[in-house]
Amino acid sequence: MSMGIYGDSLFVGTDSKGLDIFVNGNYAENVNSDNSPLGDNAVLSLAKSKKGEIWMGTYGGNVVVRKKNGAFLKIEIPGSIDVRDFAETADGFMIIATGRGPAVVSGTGEIKTLWNNDGHNTDEWLRTLLVRNNGEIWIGSFGSGIAIAISDSKGGLMSTTIYIQTP
Question: What pLDDT, on a 0 to 100 scale, did the predictor assign at position 164?
């Protein structure tokens, strides 16, 4: 389950019924796999981009963006499962925490996988993300502690990763 307040609207991601939207405290709409490209009705994560778009992540690994005009855009992340969190960088890239590691979506919609546990000392099952003002991307996993990724000049790609093992 996830929740977010965006303007005068409350968005509630449910475990099995999609996304409920309340406006000024009144139920307004349900977004689900029957009336949108959501694909999975377990909405685990929500975020609002700087452009005002609502990003939704599902248990099944789907990412759906609701544009300001109400239209939906489904973003296919190859092999993605369990989308848990979103974090937007200063330059407008959206970092996505998935069960297959982090991914980044550029302003043009291009998807780049940041890593797939290929020698990195972290769990692919990511839980949470935080982008700091200095550009560091803090990544929390289910079982391997915290990774700190440093953005490079290419906008959202990682050049150095530091791992902090928690006891």
Answer: 61
The neighbouring-strand residues paired with 111 are 105
Q: For residue 162, what pLDDT is reported?
A: 59
Would you state the pLDDT for residue 166?
56
User: Which contacts of 63-67 are long-range, i.e. CB under 8 A and separated by 24 or more positions?
Assistant: 63/96, 63/105, 64/36, 64/37, 64/38, 64/39, 66/31
From the list 74, 53, 71, the residue with the least C-alpha distance to 4 is: 53
Number of Cβ within a 10 Å radius of residue 78: 9
Per-residue tokens: 85: 């969190």
* Residues with pLDDT less than 50, the chain: 117-122, 153, 155, 157
Whether residue 19 contacts residue 31, with contact meaning beta carbons closer than 8 Å, is answered with yes
Which token pair is 41? 């009705």
Query: How do beta strands 85-88 and 111-113 pair?
Result: unpaired
The full length of the chain comes to 167
